[in-house]
Design brief:
alpha+beta, PH-domain like, 33% helix, single chain, 4 helices, three-stranded antiparallel sheet, 31% strand
Length: 166
Amino acid sequence: MAELAKTNDYGKKIMSWQVPEYDKHERGQGWYIVSVIFGLFFLIYAFLSSNFLFAAIIIIGALVIIMHDGREPMKVEFGITDEGLIVGKRFYDYDEIKDFSIVYKPHQAVKNLYFEFKSVLKPRLSIPLNNLNPLPIRENLLKYLPEDLERTDQPVSEALAKMFKL
């Protein structure tokens, strides 16, 4: 549930809510079987082509997925203030942000808030809206940032990550 109007070191808090630090996908036994088959195929290819760096990357990637899958995502506070955005312990000033967009597609289970940064070195920030009404969020953000009305779908990278449960 969104909190309203509190003051902190980063300005007056307009709204805030809890978001998971990452999307946790429910993976069935079939996903793991297919992943092991692909992983073994790529490992065999890496060793046959004497590409040991590729083999190391595959093994490290598998270990990261296994370790990551064993824990629940922590809840992180996301806040909109009159000076910028708070994501956990990070603060993003509105001067760093190019624009925002809201993608609301209930039949695709997509209800996210996206922020694009001016710097190409910073990745896009994707914030789930959970059960919140996007209209008050949009109205508040329009006071500080332009809205990208051309974005009507979730980014391809997020759609692929959701499809492949990564």
